[in-house]
């Protein structure tokens, strides 16, 4: 299973905010730090704000900020917020055209696998991903007067 860029970028935005000074940053700085499109990040940040994970403000001193403690934001919550299709096989999705759907055991096996996958993500938090603050800040250009300062 592979997540969309939308979900991947959401995770990157939140990770950036977790290690950024004041847990705040601009969309431009985040895009620059991760070498990704600012236009795409605008859409991602809007989704994160709609979900109550970040807040945004305009003007001088504005930007994007974490709303909650990173230890309370699970990876499962992030993925469920940003993704809408977890049909790793057709029979888990809304349209079922498979000729053996309902008489084969694949649906049950993949449903259990998906439950186990989310159990792991629900047990991991944004705080868990940022256990190397200094390394992350360096990789994102947040040390020494680079982006975000």
TrEMBL record:
Which InterPro entries does the record associate with it? TR_Rrf2-type_CS, Tscrpt_reg_Rrf2, WH-like_DNA-bd_sf, WH_DNA-bd_sf
- Source organism superkingdom: Bacteria
Is DNA-binding one of the keywords UniProt gives this record? Answer: yes
What's the cofactor?
[2Fe-2S] cluster
SUPFAM superfamilies xrefs: Winged helix' DNA-binding domain (SSF46785)
Fetch the Gene3D superfamilies from UniProt: Winged helix-like DNA-binding domain superfamily/Winged helix DNA-binding domain
Fetch the PROSITE patterns from UniProt.
Answer: HTH_RRF2_1, HTH_RRF2_2
Alphabetized, the UniProt keywords read: DNA-binding
Where does the chain cross the membrane?
none
Asked if the record carries the keyword Cell division, the reply is no
NCBIfam families in alphabetical order: rrf2_super (TIGR00738)
Q: What is this protein called?
A: Nitric oxide-sensing transcriptional repressor NsrR
Q: What is the lineage of its organism?
A: Bacteria, Bacillati, Actinomycetota, Actinomycetes, Pseudonocardiales
* Protein encoded by which gene: nsrR
């Amino acid at each position: 299973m592979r997540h969309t860029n939308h979900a991947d970028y959401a995770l990157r935005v939140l990770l950036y905010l977790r290690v950024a000074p004041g847990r705040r940053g601009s969309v431009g700085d985040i895009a620059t730090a991760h070498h990704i499109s600012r236009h795409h990040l605008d859409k991602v940040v809007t989704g994160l704000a709609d979900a109550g994970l970040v807040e945004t403000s305009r003007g001088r001193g504005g930007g994007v900020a974490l709303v909650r403690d990173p230890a309370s934001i699970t990876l499962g919550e992030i993925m469920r917020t940003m993704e809408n299709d977890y049909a790793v096989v057709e029979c888990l999705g809304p349209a079922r055209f498979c000729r053996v759907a309902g008489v084969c055991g694949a649906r049950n096996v993949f449903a259990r696998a998906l439950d186990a996958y989310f159990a792991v993500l629900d047990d991991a938090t944004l705080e868990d991903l940022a256990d190397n603050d200094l390394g992350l800040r360096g990789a994102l250009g947040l040390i020494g007067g680079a982006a975000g300062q």
